[in-house]
Amino acid sequence: RLRAAAAARASMAAAPLSDRAVARRGPAPLERLLEYVPYDRIGLPFIEAFFNRYQHYWIGGLGIFGVIAVICGLCLSLSPSPSGPVIRHTVHAPSPLPAPAGSVQQVSWLGAPARVWQTAKETGELINQKADVLFVPDFDFDGPVVNITGSRGQTISGFGGAFSEASARVFRELPLDQQQMVLEGYFGPGGIGYTLGRVDMTGDFEVNDFEGDWKRERRVQLPFVIAANKVLKDQGKRLQLLATQWSPPAWMKTNAKMFPPARPCLRSMVSATWAQYFVEWVSAYHKEGLPIWAVTVQHSSNEDALSEACLLTPEEEADFLGGLLGPRLRAAHPDVRVFFSHHGRKYAERWAELLRSHPSAAGYAVGLAFQGSTEGDLEALQRVRRQMPNAQLLASEAVGLRRRWRWPQGATPATGAWALGESYAHDILGDLNAGSVGWIDWNLIINDERIGPNHVDNVWDAAMNLLVDDDEEPEHEDNVWDAAMMADLSTGEVHRHPQYYFIGHFSKFILPGSMHIKSTASGASSSQSSRGRRRQAIRGHRPRPGACDAEDGLQSTTFLRPDGFLATVVLNCGDQPLHFKLLHGLRAAHASIPPHAIQTYLFENQGTSPFRDLGGEPFIGVNFGGWLLLEDWMWASQMRDRSIQDEWTLVQQHGGSRHPRAVRLLEEHWDSFVTEADLDRLRQFGITHVRVPIGYWLVDYDPADGFVDGGERYLARLLRWLSVRGMRCVLDLHALPGAQASDQSFTGRYKKAEFFTVRSHYERGKRAMLKLAELIVSYELRPSTAGVVVGLELVNEPAWPFWDTSPGIRELYETMVPQIRRLLPPQRYAILLNFMESPRTTGSAWLASMRARDPLNYASVVYDAHVYHSFGDDNKPGLSWNPKIDSCKTCCRDPAVLAPLADKNVPMVIGEYSLNTGFPGDPSFFVEYFRNQLSLWASIPGMVGSFFWNHRILRNPGGWYKEMSLLELMAPDGPLPPVSQMNLTVRCVGNDLSMCPVFNPEKVLWTAECKWKGSPELHAGLGKTNQQARQEGARTFKGDSAQ
Questions:
Q1: Which stretches are tagged as biased composition: Basic residues (predicted)?
Q2: In 775-829, at which residue ranges do the beta strands (DSSP E only) sit?
Q3: Is 483 left (phi over 0), alpha (psi -120 to 50) or beta?
Q4: I want to staple 754 with a disulfide (CB 3.0 to 4.6 A). Which of 146, 260, 758, 861 is the partner?
Q5: Which helix (H) or strand (E) holds 848?
Q6: Is the pLDDT of residue 92 over 80?
Q7: What is the Cα–Cα distance from 54 to 59, expressed in whole angstroms?
Q8: CB atoms within 10 A of CB 27
Q9: Do residues 457 and 307 lie in contact, with contact meaning Cβ atoms separated by under 8 Å?
Q10: Cβ(133)–Cβ(589) under 8 Å?
Q11: Core vs surface per residue 667-699: b (16+ CB within 10 A) or e
């Protein structure tokens, strides 16, 4: 059996990750355990405890003592290395990255092995794939530990480099085959995955000073940019450009010179002209089909500028942005992000304070851009990140390490310097762990003769074989430049330097949209951690920021990718190999890294949480309400128009639960209300998750209840459809026996709430919850539905007065969460708990306390909040309405409503929301309203996702509820473009948040009114009163309408 298992493992080595994961889904626990390499660390007590704890997951009928006997026999026959396992150094050619999430189906919570790519000096490997590393249950380990803890960080926009004029001129002179190699190497599917680029209005790596000559820029630089963009477009991707300017022309400056820089910089009478030129420059790129993603207000504004610059204090830059550039740029290009820029640590926190408090600039800037990194820089940036978690940081130019770099003797343009590659990785790790949303290198490519062209001649030693002085250190060390690719124009060859491969370990695997997941590397060094801190002195030298060696120990960073895989990058700059444990929740892997090497581990996000570690970029989902549980207002022709209030009454009026007419009516509805075509449209729009409300009778059927049986067949069919599309599902117990809320159609029967007051209903409801959990387990055991269900919601919208009764909501949750966890472990399933409280203080405090008191059971337990703008706040008779009311509620009030959850570090999901307001808004309003809500969810710490209510409403033509029917709102039928075309990175883009009224999170109600501060027209009665709207058949609130 062991030989067969080994052969199977060998045959899977070259298979795609999805195939290997499926293959491992079979009953092979013994092979899994025997694959674990460090046999010397497995003692009999561990084995017995291990199988006692986990046998119900995999063991089946295999006896515990038989397993122990087999393992002990094997251990006695082996001679393990005292230093631990050695990773096999089989070199594979780079293979395609794993398939997207959804193609991987598995049962075991340990997940498939991690795939490993390595670049190492001693073996000459350059992003070569290694043997997989197996996950096992966590084990004791005396050595470095890379611990992936799961808390959420920033979203990555991408990696890239600068399309400087120097790079463009070198690119233009290359032979066509070498041009293609450069493009494919950076931007192609087999390259290192660049998706960001930077363009500069002027700069040092150009042939001369600023001339305001767009024609030259279009002739020289744009062909390079357009070619790169085409390579990405052919892959279905897009190039995102950062635009930055260095200096206005000399006639606009107070000293009438390009260099040296002047302070103050701009002549007052031309400031507006310079701002307008900046905007028109951005527009010129848009007209070329190259939309600018972001801009920095100024490239370098410090006194140490080595070329043309515009010296501005943080306050001057903020005034220029708030008064001149910001309004013009937003009017022309509202989706372009704006970053304050700084060049050193002494200004970082001053800029951050302006980002918070400047009266006008704060509404335009999304964060700070920085160049280079020193120990002080990163510490300041980390403080900024802690103080302003929503502020975006951007490493906009990897320059600091090279300006201080010391070339080793013997380096050539063809080989580059290995240590420089390590230092690149060291700085990237520091930037990412400090919170950077992207990383941009300086020149994409330069020539090897003059390291340029460069018009200010700030490269003193152009060749890489530098002269050395008496102390064997290179002269003029402060201005030596390199690039990941360097061209020898005499031969037409392009050389890839080591940093190209070190960068690739990040840019190739950490995809745009990936979320930083906190990880720590402990025990790697006696003096340093992996969070990018710099040494003060090493081996007698003065400090060398950017350098990396053994004193830095094991360094790491981890990101959760949009496809659901985790990417962990590990760096070892020391002279000795390091054995370490890769720890993720309750599972771990024993790994090792050679000296002077970097590795990337890619593995499924199993073992911690089903919802992207309860963090990451929030998913966007939709409800399938009105399908397996009918609500009268959602099927007006069959129910509301016939005075039928609930599903129970509908069934009775069609003959009862077993009558053919009732069965046929429901089965036809189940068959047609959700279709594969619907799923295809929703997936294309950007929906990844669905929430399916069901009634208790689906899992605990009794014909005497008066409902029709058979809905589960259609639910299983839906899960199969979701599986092939890579979509996920939460099952929501929407109706409980006796009704959990009074007079609500969603409880199945419109009646007084008796679930919490009649003991038999309460006990039966608890049994239904367990039966639903058992049904989910059965889905997990079927290959066609495994991995689709990621969560269970115990009850929908229970009446809040029952919170502290007995029985009551609190008692129900505290009783059922541990019982559900016996069937649905937290590494694989979320439990959603709904709280209909206002303000959101009691339930959030309780959940925070339970997570602290019982972390094993309450891991992946999520607070479900329903956010509607149609429960009393917009429906007061005579109240005037206009779109600014709801933008105020979304942008100003709702953050305060949800703040108690974020403050208590409680994970949350928006289980229901819509575009309903009480007024039938116009199409442009729907787009703004939808974007504002999604951007709000994305900005709140702890938010795991949202479910729009609903995918479809069966309504009278031209009647109610279009604003709650996503399929009607989506293009081409409606105004909403795909989510990918919306800017969700900036909360409520286009709204001046400094005009928000102030709300107390501990007291604000979800029905509170909201009026923008300032100009009266922001909240004047520009719309119709609710009374008028009701008279015209407008939607008023969920479950109610009027003709």
A1: 531-544
A2: 789-793
A3: beta
A4: 758
A5: helix 842-853
A6: no
A7: 8
A8: 11
A9: no
A10: yes
A11: eebbeebbeeebbebbeebbbbbbbbbbbbbbb
pTM of the model: 0.57
Chain centre to alpha carbon of residue 1000:
29
Q: Name residue, tokens 């949202």.
A: 946
Name which residue leads in pLDDT, 513 or 577.
577
Query: Residue 216 CB: number of other CB atoms within 10 A?
Result: 14
Q: Is the peptide bond before 545 cis (omega within 30 degrees of 0)?
A: no
Cα 815 to chain centroid distance, Å, stands at 33
What is the rounded end-to-end Cα distance, in angstroms, of the chain? 72
- Asked if residue 195 lies in contact with residue 554, where contact means CB atoms within 8 angstroms, the answer is no
- Contact residues for 169 (Cβ-Cβ < 8 A; gap 6+): 207, 220, 453
DSSP string, 891-943: IIIHHHHHHHHHHTT--EEEEEE-S--SS---HHHHHHHHHHHHHHHHHSTTE
Nearest to 618 by CA among 712, 513, 701: 513
Domains of the chain (ranges, CATH numbers): 120-156+513-524+547-607 (2.60.40.1180), 158-466+476-510 (3.20.20.80), 619-800+807-851+861-995 (3.20.20.80)
pLDDT score at 1036? 32
Give residues with Cβ within 8 angstroms of 251, minimum separation 6: none
| Alpha helices (H) in 394-530, listed in sequence order | 400-403, 418-434, 498-507
- Confirm if 873 and 1008 have CB atoms less than 8 A apart: yes
- The torsion angle over the Cα atoms of residues 111, 113, 114 and 117, rounded to 10 degrees, is -160
Q: Do the beta carbons of residue 164 and residue 200 sit within 8 Å?
A: yes
pLDDT by residue (tens digit) across 375-404? Answer: 556 777 777 777 776 778 898 887 544 444
Q: How many CB atoms lie within 10 A of CB 726?
A: 18
Residue 1007 and residue 838 in contact, taking contact as beta carbons nearer than 8 Å:
yes
Distance CA 507, CA 439 (A): 9
Strand runs labelled E in 163-288: 196-200, 240-244
Q: Which residues contact 813 (CB under 8 A, 6 or more apart)?
A: 794, 833
The CA distances from residue 374 to 163, 353, 963, 1026, in Å, are: 25, 21, 51, 58
- Measured between alpha carbons, how far is residue 522 from residues 516, 519, 529, 534, 580 in Å? 18, 10, 7, 16, 10
What DSSP designation does 294 have? E
* Strand arrangement of the beta sheet that strand 565-572 belongs to: 125-129, 115-120, 597-604, 565-572, 554-560, 515-522, 145-155, 578-584, 587-593, 136-137
Residue 402 pLDDT: 42
pLDDT of residue 344: 55
Distance CA 337, CA 341 (A): 13
Amino acid of residue 583: L
* 662 within 8 A of 676, measured Cβ to Cβ: no
Residue whose pair of structure tokens reads 């029905």 in the numeric block: 1007
Of the pLDDT bands very low, low, confident and very high (cuts 50, 70, 90), residue 550 is confident
Confidence check: pLDDT of 18 > 50 = no
Please provide residue 628's backbone torsions phi and psi, each rounded to the nearest 5 degrees.
-85, -5
CA distance 521 to 630: 52
Q: What is the torsional sign of CA 830, 834, 839, 841?
A: negative
DSSP state letter for 573? -
